[in-house]
Amino acid sequence: MERLIVYNIGTLATPIGSGPKGGAAMKAIKILNDAYLVIENGKFTEAGSGAGYKKYQGKKIDAQGRLVTPGLIDAHNHLIFAGSREHEFRKRLEGASYLDILAAGGGILETVEKTRAAGFDMLYDEAAETLEKMLLLGISVIEAKSGYGLDQDTELKQLKVIKQLKKNCPQHIIATYLGAHAIPSEYKQNRKGYIDIIKETMEVIKRESLAEFCDVFCEEGVFSYEESKEILVRAKELGFKIRIHADEMTNSGGARLAAELDCSFADHLLASVSEDFTAMAESDVVLVALPLTSFVLDKPFARIREMIACNGALALATDYNPGSCPSYNLHLVMQTAVIKTGMTPAEVLTAVTLNPAYGLGLVESKGSIETGKDADFIIFNCSNLDYFFYRLGENLVRDVYIRGINVVNNGRIV
Q: Comparing C-alpha atoms, which of 337, 379, 408 is closest to residue 10?
């Protein structure tokens, strides 16, 4: 692969390191002005300022004074599903709660019915189209969950779709098994029976190498603390990395369990308390806030400043799904976090690059612009980080590179 030199970068902004960043370290990013990058064999080999790039031979790209950041990472995404739930959106506007809709057989259970009926090709095509749209936003790493099957055949179908997407799409995709997303209707009177199905399915997934992570929705009316612990302990025994939907609506012990089991991620955390944040920080659990879900459900935003004050390593993600967050727009997540939760632009950049890379087990190769890491980066149509946040709702991505390969050029997929 030809050496690539990107020069005349107005602002290069990146976190630095190979560990999670919490507290004040989240905003301690590296800023280089009049910067350049050197890339060889898909890896960064140098980042500097001034005319140092002139000593190199290779393909030169003039960034024309633009902003460059690492590729973005969406570490919580329910990518594979069938159908839509706009009627549910209207019901919520009329006052119905998320749990009310779920109890009436809607919500997750409605999507389960549609996803069970969908063929492999339909699920693949829908997800591939979404991944292309995410690529245009500079999202180069995605975590993709199952969880809309709630039976072995459909959960495996979803994970096999993800496996095929990994082969065909330029992004790095991490698969998560979320069979513990809800109790299916046919097991309402036999919760233990369904948990046994989850355990059996995990064994099949591990044999067929279909997922790296196992996730559980620990919440009132879904899976209890005890049930979640049983599932996640078994997942760890089988060699899965583990994560948890924790305390989204009530404090059900999910955050506490994340700390006890050293989960990679704990997500949502709207009803968690400071002691939970501190315990998770001490266990190197990455805390995931999902601002657009709060926005869509008209709920309070996660107490992000409190999380950071407790030295929590925070990540931001979309929670893209057909019900509580029908948006894959990570830019809007980032901008909402600055406007509504008091995060700084520097903290947000760390929360969508280095911290999620750590939680996903990719921090040695992803999440920052540093020598030896994969050359995943974005060139924006602006000159500095503040301008990106100022232009609310506008996609300012010009060019996207993944492992040194240009996959988006001048706003179009190559």
A: 379
- Strands 72-74 and 67-70, bridge-based pairing: unpaired
For 308-320, what is each residue's pLDDT tens digit?
999 999 999 999 9
CB count within 10 Å of CB 83 equals 15
Regarding pTM above 0.85, the answer is: yes
Residue 119's H or E segment, with its range, is none
Alpha carbons 322 and 107: distance in angstroms, whole number: 9
Please state, in angstroms and rounded to a whole number, the distance separating the CA atoms of residues 223 and 254: 10
Query: Distance between CA 405 and CA 401 in Å, rounded?
Result: 5
Instruction: Tell me the one-letter amino acid at 84.
Output: S
Helix, strand, coil abundance in the chain, percent, nearest 5: 40, 25, 35
What 8-state DSSP symbol labels residue 77?
B
Torsion over CA: 225, 294, 187, 116 (sign): negative
Could you report the per-residue pLDDT of 137-163, keeping only the tens digit for each?
999 999 999 999 999 999 999 999 999
Q: 314 near 349, Cβ under 8 Å?
A: no
φ/ψ of residue 18, rounded to 5:
-130, 20
d(CA 316, CA 173): 17
Cα 273 from chain centre: 23
CA proximity to 325, closest of 94, 130, 85, 103: 85
Q: What is the DSSP string of 83-101?
A: S--HHHHHHHHTT--HHHH
Structural tokens at position 335: 């901008």
Relative orientation angle of helices 274-282 and 254-261, to the nearest 10 degrees: 20
CB 222, CB 184: distance < 8 Å? no
Are 271 and 247 in contact by the 8 Å Cβ rule? The answer is yes
Neighbour tally for 124: CB within 10 Å: 18
Locus of tokens 């990719």? 362
Degrees, nearest 5: CA angle 122-124-127: 105
Question: Helix, strand or coil for residue 184?
Answer: coil
